[in-house]
Amino acid sequence: METRANYVLIGAFTLVTAAALLLFGLWAAKYSSERTWQQYQIVFREAVTGLSVGSPVQYNGIAVGSITKLSLAPNDPRQVVASIRVESSTPIKTDTRAKLAITSLTGPTIIQLSGGTPQAPALTSVDKREAPVIQTAPSALQNITDTANRIVERLDEVLSDK
Question: Closest by alpha carbon to 82, among 113, 104, 125?
Fold first, then answer.
């Protein structure tokens, strides 16, 4: 006895299912890309060790964007310019500050945004550049490094032959 399979029906079902999955994937990609983003720049006057393109940007501990580019400032190589993109609904104010932070003891370095009083105007309304500049605050990492350097300098003075 020979089993009869309807190969045309099975093939059509397979093609329709594959097309439906492809259309669903395209729809889902469009839905996730419909967010609107605002570009900003942050100029750090300290080393940004551990920071990389794609690292998250957080505002008060909530992920709101990512780093799109890292480069040295053209007029001062001691400064690092970080270009970031942040969800346009994020309330970046003129008094919002950026600093480097570590997510955990061995975690990656991120940019942490904080501050921004309700009365302050939005940064985009004051700074009309394509990518407004967010001001920085010294990070805990920089404070620890500066303190350690001062301690070593003082110990060197105390222990010197003079």
Answer: 113
CA 134 to chain centre: 13
- Bridge partners for 89 per DSSP: none
Give percent above pLDDT 90 in the chain. 28
CB 123 within 8 A of CB 92: yes
The span from the CA of 123 to the CA of 125, in Å, is: 5
The pair of three-digit structure tokens given for residue 136, joined into one six-digit string: 């920085």
Beta strands (DSSP E) in 14-122 are: 37-44, 56-59, 62-73, 76-87, 96-102, 109-115
Q: Is 162 exposed, middle or buried (0-12, 13-18, 19+ CB in 10 A)?
A: exposed
Quote the pTM value: 0.67
